[in-house]
Structure formats: structure tokens, C-alpha cells
Amino acid sequence: MQHRIVVLGAGYTGAVAAGRLARRLRREDAAITLVNAEPDFVERVRMHQVAVGQDLRHRSLDEMFAGTGVVLRLARVTGVDVDRRTVAVTGVNGPAESGELEYDTLVYALGSSWNHQDVPGTVEHAHEISGRPGALRLRERLARLDAGQPVVVVGGGLTGLEAATEIAEARPDLDVALTARGGLGDWLSPKGRRHLRKVFAALGVTAHENADVTAVGADHVTTADGTTVPAAVTVWTTGFAVHPIARATSLDVTGTGQIVVDGTMRSVSHPDVYAIGDAALVAGPGGKPLRMSCASGTPTAWQAADAIAARLTGGKLPNAPLRYFNQCISLGRREGLIQYVTADDRAVRAALTGRLAAGYKEVVCKAAAWGVVNPTLGLPTRRRPVARRTPEPAPATGTPA
């Protein structure tokens, strides 16, 4: 009997995990099913480009996984029963794809969406770019704006910086502003902050610093001190919220709904479940949780896939460190900022700026996409027979095995 592995979600982490598992395990021993609601892979890190009218290359999941042994199931996940080891799905192309999937090992990679933080008016009036549907809606709205109309990007993190500069570069006729709870780029090095302000000035982006937005209206946002900032379009980029399904299960999750995992990405409460990417609470250097990002997610996918393969085949468990090296920020198509950081993501003095940094960021994005759309290339073939059919019990302490 084949060991049934079900991977939920085909974003960066889920697609990478499925491909890596296909590379590690023999087809006669393992049946790998990848569940996703969309038929193609979406480069989530480029949604700010989609929002301003740029077209991305189409990447079909069917074509990506052809010949790998991975079975694609086009469906939405509607429920997970970790006690019965089943996943409920609803087919996106009709009832034929709906039903229940049974698993022996589950890889939970459903990721995250925008976090409106229950700020009044956000759901009704703000746009988000956490996925392709939201980016396309914003694209249509921006295309209808007349010259001189104001656009406000709420959130001074990486997504906000990229969105504000991309919009300002693509539409120099608009009045683009960004609101940040703290200072502009206050986590960056002095060199990084200087370059960010230089780019904002060149693009004409107004920065409202120390401005916590407390309400969103149809034509404005309001900050905590009562200031009203005009906004024909509001773009909300203040963080991400994980998919709610895990919270409805008996899995051990955090208050925000992230699944608590050990160092091999295995659930501390259910040893047959692995969580990766934004869906997991992963401890990095010094025990500090990894932030939600592609830079964090892909290494967790490698770790989980290698751990699953090792446990099934009797191999050695992976022990790769999960750490950061830099933060890559695009500031339009011609400018960028690469902020070098410590292992636990704190800025150091060194930073790369300008066109070279923009090129660096583009290479990183292309490399990440290449790793996803070529799921079984770039790794040595090490397929081994499955030695045991069920995962071993989870450690009682929740520490890596």
C-alpha cells in the first residue's frame, strides 16, 4: 500500500514541498496529492506589479508537475479533520472534484491573506494585494483614476514600500502617499533609510510617519490623531492573517491561528501533520519566530519534505539552520534596496542600493519562481523505499526529533 501524502496549497511552500517529496520518494511507495484552488502558480511576491498593469508569465501547475508523479486536485479546502486524517474539498470545476481525501501524512501550506485588523471601513473601502484576485481588482481601479487623484498605501513594511513606489513609478500623474505607524523604514540601516527617502522624494511619494490609521472611508483615511488623508484609492498592506481552517481543528495553534511545529516542521500535537510557510509558527535563531515571507517559507518547505522522507525511509533527519541573510525590496522597476541582516533579521550597516539592488531583487524573484516551476530539477535523485508506513510519535516536549 502506498503512503498517502496530501499537500494543501500550491504557493511557494506547498509546490516546493510536493516537488521535493516526489524527488525523494519512490512512486510505488508514496502517492502525493497537491490540492490547490487555482490551476496555475502565482508569484505572490509580484502582486504589486500586477496591480499597476504588468503581466506575469503563466505557469500551469499541470505542466509543472507533469511526469513527476504528483497528482493535482483543483479544489478549495473546506475542512480538515486531523483525528480522522481526512481533508474536505470542494471542486472548483464542479462536484466531481469535491469530497474527502484521506491521508497518512498531511502537509499544511494554505498560507495567509490580508489582515484588515478589524479597522472600521477597511473591508468596505480598501484594496489588498495579498493575492491575484485583489491585485487585479486594484489594477482595474487604478486604471480608472484621473490624473492628480490621491492614492494612499497603508503600512510601512516591505509590501507597503513596494506597492507605493511601484504605483508612483507606473502612474507619476497620481498623488501617492504612504502611512506608517513608525518612522519610514525605521528598521533599516542608516544607509538603507537614506536611500529609501531619496527614492520616495524622486518618485514624489509623501510619507506620513507615526500615523496609525484608525478608519478608512470611501475617499479618505483617518489617523489616530484625527488627521484626515485624502484617498481616492486606499491600499491596505499592514500584515497577513493565516487561513482560518487550522484554528477549527484540534491542532495546537497560536492565538493567531498558526500551527505550532517543531524544528522539522511537524505539528507538536499531531505527528502526521506538517505545517510550512505562513501557516506555521517556526522558531528561528534565538527562538524568535520567523516572519511571514517567501524567504522564511521556502526553507521550511525543504525542511518538512526532507524530514518526511527521512522518517518514512529511515534516513537522517535534516538539521539545516533557518536564518536570514538579507531583505530584498523593489522600489519600482529601476530602484531597489537590499538590506543585509543578522541571522535573526536585524539590520546591519551594509546595504546595496540603486539599479544593482533592483537587478539583485529581480534575480531573487526569478530564482524563487524557477525553483517552484521546476519541482524535480536541481536536486540529486535520492529515491528510497519507504521503511515504515506511519510516522513515529511526536516528541513530548515539542522539540526536534
TrEMBL record:
Segments spanning the bilayer are none
Give one GO term, molecular function aspect: NAD(P)H dehydrogenase (quinone) activity
Q: Which cofactor does it need?
A: FAD
Which stretches of sequence are listed as region Disordered?
Answer: 381-401
The UniProt keyword set, sorted, is: FAD, Flavoprotein, Oxidoreductase
Q: Which residues form the FAD/NAD(P)-binding domain?
A: 4-305
Q: Which Pfam family, just one, is annotated for this protein?
A: Pyr_redox_2
For this protein, the record's PANTHER family field holds: 64 KDA MITOCHONDRIAL NADH DEHYDROGENASE (EUROFUNG), APOPTOSIS-INDUCING FACTOR 1
Family membership: Belongs to the NADH dehydrogenase family.
The protein here is known as: Oxidoreductase
**What is the organism field in this record?**
Streptomyces pactum
